Protein 1
Amino acid sequence: MTHEHFPQHPPLGFFDLDEGEALVVALYRDWKGLDPIPEIAERQLALLLRHDSLHGLLEALFAVFRRFGPEPCFLGEGAGWGLLDAAEIALVESLARPEAAGEEIAPLARQCRSGLERAGLSLRPPATIPRSGRDHLESAIARSYLVFRGFNAG
């Protein structure tokens, strides 16, 4: 493999995330992937999480998710391989640093961050999250396997 396959600073991967960050990204991916109609996905997630301590925070989280769009997560270059796509990174950034989220999202982002902190979950700005390279390596292996098997890996 050439040098560009393993950059000096690997992309942000799901395994690099702490519990709070992973929860937000997983919920966002579920929100995007459960149903093409966001309202239906929201009802399904709310039902699944009806006994979870974060249930009361879901409306605010869904409102933030809507700002980043319902595009299916499997269409992103990184998503599906364990790597975060640009929208997921921006989502974590907005919740970790609501003051940098922009006027439109900042109040909701602050509400979400406060609710997550009350639940004992924290979020770090993506630039400060150490990258292990694990997800990047796994995606490279998976892509090479697909190429070997004759599938177009993108």
Note: The radius of gyration is 16 Å.
Protein 2
Amino acid sequence: MKKKVIIPVLAILVLILVLHNLILYSVGIIAIENENYGLSEKLLQIVYNQDSSYRNVNVLLKYSSAKMKYGDGDISSSELEKVYDIVSAIDGNYKGDNHEDVVSFRNRIIDTRTQIREKTLKEEDEKYRTTVREAINDCPLVINKVILSENMIGRTQVSLSCSNKAAKTIDEFDAEIYCYDKFGEPVKKSINKDNVLHVSCQNTISENGFLDGNDYYWDTYGYENASIFIPYIIKIHYTDGEEWRLDEDLKDGIQEHADLKAKGERY
């Protein structure tokens, strides 16, 4: 007798649960169609909590949550990221209930976010490039000319003609000279991975003075195949003990600046 009573009771409970989920799910879809995403989110969340695999509740719950956060679209970039995190988990090939609206919204958010990120990255890149250009132009030791000659064994040697814009005396400076062949391709030293000749000069340059570059030179050993030399001052030491340094964070920008200049292109 007990078994005969229990089985119908369980069947009734299962039926009630099925009908309960069906009703909530159906009303949730109606709420979505009426753009009442707050209601649809609440109803679908109940269904999801009881049975996360019920029909398309998982997708439609994400859609409703994303729509709630998106509102009329006037949201911050951080809020848009939250919406993107939700919709990016929805399959672009979703074919279930309300699939046209769901997929369309998903794709629109992804496209919008991509466009904003591309714009932001472009703005950040231009800002960085401006900083690099300003750092080069603001260097207190101006490179007037790169002087190339040959040593006794016929190897190229290089020196720099410079002007000191500072109102104090320089007693040492370091430079990095980027080396390229006639086609503007980097010439790398065999024992090094870059195309940079690191040099230092201890000639004194008086305040607002000039260094003609004819009484010193640097050997280009390892870069014999180079014919284009693009120099940048990276550090200056003054007789009063003060220093000027090129920001280390600009190193990649300097490399790109040199690479483009070697090919006759603007940075």
Note: The longest strand covers residues 170-180.
